[in-house]
Write the structure tokens for this entry.
Amino acid sequence: MPRIYLDANSTTPALPEVVEAMFPFFTTEFGNPSSTHLHGQHARAALDHAREQVAALLRCRASEVVLTSGGTEAANLALFGTLPPTSGAAPHLITASTEHHAVLHAAEALAARLISPVELTILPVSHNGLVSPADLEAAIQPNTRLVSIMFANNETGVLQPIADLARIAHGHGALFHTDAVQAAGKVPLDLSPAGPLRDVDLLSISGHKMYAPQGTGALFVRRGLHLAPLLHGGPHERQRRAGTENLPGYVGLGRAADLAQRWLTEDHPNDGPTHLAVLRSNLEHQLLAQIPGGRINSRSATRIPNTTSLTLPGIDAEALLIALDLQGLSCSAGSACQSGATEPSHVLRAMHLTDADARATIRLSLSRFTTPTEIDRVLDLIPATVTRLRALAPRLAHA
Ligand SMILES: Cc1ncc(COP(=O)(O)O)c(C=O)c1O
């Protein structure tokens, strides 16, 4: 029986159209976009086109897109680029406790910097994982330079009120960055000057979460904002990121952005965000109906349409994942970066789950390829496996 992949928040396969678009750029169209000869010109044209495709997905200008090696680099560039060492008073950075480590660890590194360390505030979240606009308002200080709050959480899928949060930051003269790695390609993003995200100054995306290859990504940098580069060298990316571009990768990212845009706007009964949301909703209803004590985290909040965070009290998530893997289902506990780690997820802990419940939580993240038949099979597998594991450890189950 073919395996089922419900771990799309960890990574997605590159779409066939993406691979097809990339292929010539490994072979015949191998030029360096910085070369002035014809090979270089072809490469430059392809790079420009890819950048325009990414800009179209984000509804911004092509010149506002800095291509990067992924979401981690984009987030680091946003944070380090807007908070370079200064000779004046320490700048203040605000972020939230449920951020991905790409932001949290970058923020901690800035706070631990020997020269000009930043003052760091980490906002709490509600039991649903939401940052309160009032908390942000109260945390802003005269020296707040940057607020960085993620668009959609990788573990629960919860969507933050980004437009409101960005407006508050701007109202106090601070910049606003959002890590939109889990949102891009799943929900519309509109960074146009009159659009809902007009107060967002910086936004990070990652190729491999939206059906482009791993090792590609982008940072949106609003026009007029100066960014100190992380990488020094040539004048690539308008002096914002030195180094010869990953041309095949960016061609793939551009094509994937183009396909994502269509997927978001041409919502068909059997393919599109609504279809995905219906599949996820059926999955959740049935799981809750069949598993006593099961809970879905952030269920009453607005979420991206593909993510389910399921707490199964009394179950060791790692044991469940292994049992499911052996039966042909790939899913994860919290974020992929934490697999194998013994610490419970910082996201779930920040949402006030106990350590035991955080360790009893799995994440199911559907992809555009997930079918109703696969969901039916998952609904056979998970409840039966949970019942078996609970029978093996009855004392734990009632703990
Ligand atoms: C919310 C979020 N931000 C950032 C990243 C890092 O992106 P990348 O893997 O492209 O470095 C991830 C990856 O899991 C993510 O889920």
Observations:
- The first helix runs from residue 16 to 22.
- Residues 16-264 form a domain with the Aspartate Aminotransferase; domain 2 fold (CATH 3.40.640.10).
- The pocket of pyridoxal-5'-phosphate is lined by residues 70-72, 100, 102, 150, 154, 179, 181-182, 206, 208, 217, 335 (CB under 6 Å).
